[in-house]
Design goal:
This protein is mainly alpha-helical and about 200 residues long. The chain has eight helices and two strands. The protein folds into two domains: about 30 residues; about 160 residues, Orthogonal Bundle (Globin-like). The longest helix is centred in the first third of the chain and has 25 residues. It is globular, with a radius of gyration of 26 Å. InterPro entries: Globin/Proto. It comes from Halpernia humi.
């Protein structure tokens, strides 16, 4: 009996060492979860608002606003210069207002888009609450008189190109993964926005 006990004890010891070493060799430490897009753009860190003297703004929201405003500016510039394939037909009302010196619609569009992207990428505080229409309604000319026509797949791709150029202009595209994540957000909206 002692002989079997020593053998059993020896096997148990060898098995426990083998199993322990296997467990240690095969243990995979998961990567920490990636920060939200909003957090990677600066998140809720408060910084001076360059457009509103004496006011503060979250860095994430400011970075989104810069990209949004640059993208709108690029679209408007191409539309005003009659660049072939421009997106001006979608923004006729807005462009007419801006050309007449009325920037109220521009400010509202900028604020709505900034809030939409900020909120939907991790900026979940009250400042970033989106108050505009859902994407289907916002892009349907029969429900939204401010959009000139239904969006095509080709034109949505052009819009993404303007956003990409605006991201480059504002240093956002320097972080390749961040840029890819922003494009993924835009692509997730494609089925709701394209209506033609």
């Amino acid at each position: 009996m002692k002989h079997y006990s020593k053998i059993a004890l020896g096997l148990l010891l060898v098995s426990s060492v083998a199993l322990t070493s296997c467990r240690q060799d095969n243990t995979v430490t998961p990567d920490p979860p990636m920060e939200s897009i909003y957090a990677r753009l600066g998140g809720s860190t408060m910084v001076p608002d360059p457009d509103n003297a004496g006011q503060m703004i979250e860095q994430g929201r400011l970075n989104f606003r810069k990209v949004v405003n640059s993208a709108i500016g690029l679209i408007a510039a191409d539309a005003n210069n009659n660049v072939s394939g421009n997106l001006g037909d979608y923004f006729k009302v807005l462009l007419a207002e801006v050309n007449a010196g009325n920037t109220t619609g521009f400010a509202e569009l900028s604020d709505n888009l900034t809030s939409f992207f900020s909120y939907n990428t991790g900026g979940t505080n009250a400042v970033n609450t989106y108050k505009g229409d859902d994407m289907v309604t916002a892009h349907d000319p029969s429900k939204n008189s401010r959009i000139g026509k239904k969006v095509t797949a080709e034109d949505y791709t052009k819009f993404e190109g303007y956003v990409g150029k605006a991201a480059n202009m504002n240093g956002v595209a320097a972080d390749t993964q961040l840029y890819k994540d922003i494009v993924a957000v835009l692509e997730s909206l494609r089925p709701q926005i394209i209506q033609k």
